[in-house]
Amino acid sequence: MKQRWRVVGRALLAVAGLGVVAYLVHNAGPERVASVLWRAGQWLPLILALEVVQLGCDVVALRSILREHAARIPGATWLRTTIISYAMMILVPAGRAAGEVTRAAMFSRHVGAPRAATTSTALQAGYLAANGVLSIAAFVAVASRVGPGSPLALLLAGNVVFQAVVAGGLLAILRDARVGRWLGRMRRRLLPHAAESPPLDPVDRRRIPWRACLVSCFGRTAQVLQYGVVLHAVGGVFSLGNSFVAHGIHLVGATLGDMVPNQIGVTDSAYRAFAGDLGFSDEPARALSIALVVRIAQLSLAAACVVVVAVTRPSPVAPSPASARADARS
Fold it and tell me: CA 119 → CA 97, 144, 254, 273, 325, distances in Å?
């Protein structure tokens, strides 16, 4: 029953988000928004390409965490896990975490549940750390323009603290099994019906994923460039500072709207609220169109991912050397 109510609640959040988007578009002028989106369409291939770069960075980060164990995962599984996790990230609430849990479940067939869980935790820590670093850069860009006490700057500062706390908690799980057990007990108290998490790999958990953090930072930098391109596509001025400001608004909206599928309505409201920081005080349709252009690109790529998953089959699990020898003896 509780699971059913959670599904209903998430559906209501999605509907409410769509209502917010409809109101914002109506307020900004549907014709004006449509005109801006139409002109921005020519930049969609480049925006999609930068989205794919971010997916590639996730794969590189995962391989750096798995090291020699990455070779045990078939190429088809790498492809399926990448597109499935991305589709979940875009289409479901708390999509990033849900996608990584699904990816870990698929990896566990090849590398075992403990190592898959460790890999998923390390990647999430690297991703959150990268978000914190890019939030700092966005804070500097905003503070240099309108001051460190502006609403957007304060929200970015809060986002830095939030990302650091969550990433630090994940790293603590990796470094200390006792912390992991304590957090697991707290998780079961707060979410008594949540599925039991598999144990972390005792060998790999103490390795801080520095390489994954660096690769994730590169991926988020590609996202900064992507938002600079989107800003230019809707009629803004492309520059390094403007790119960081546009991306900073995205980071704030993504954190605040994490439980809403694709942050529908939340990121849109953020761009409308901080239109002045982008130079769009008198042109709200352009500010709002930033969120809409990115959503169009992401939903298009997610839809393609769903089609690929539907027409392909999962790769078989390769037998371990021990089981192969046992079969040969029999």
Answer: 13, 38, 23, 38, 28
- Report the alpha-carbon distance of residue 79 to residue 70 in Å, rounded: 13
Q: How far apart are CA 254 and CA 249, in angstroms?
A: 8
Whether the model pTM is above 0.70: yes
Residue 264 contacts residue 8 (beta carbons within 8 Å): no
Q: How far apart are CA 117 and CA 113, in angstroms?
A: 6
Question: Which residues 6+ apart lie within 8 Å of 235 measured at CB?
Answer: 36, 39, 283, 286
DSSP 8-class letter at 148 = T
Biggest CA–CA distance in the chain, Å, is 78
Residue 189, judged by CB atoms within 10 A of its CB (0-12, 13-18, 19+), counts as exposed
Write the pLDDT tens digit of every residue in 249-287.
Answer: 999 998 888 777 777 888 989 999 999 999 898 899 999
CB 227 within 8 A of CB 137: no
SS3 for 52?
helix
User: What are the φ/ψ torsions at residue 112 (nearest 5 degrees)?
Assistant: 90, 150
CB atoms closer than 10 angstroms to residue 15: 12
CB atoms within 10 A of CB 192: 8
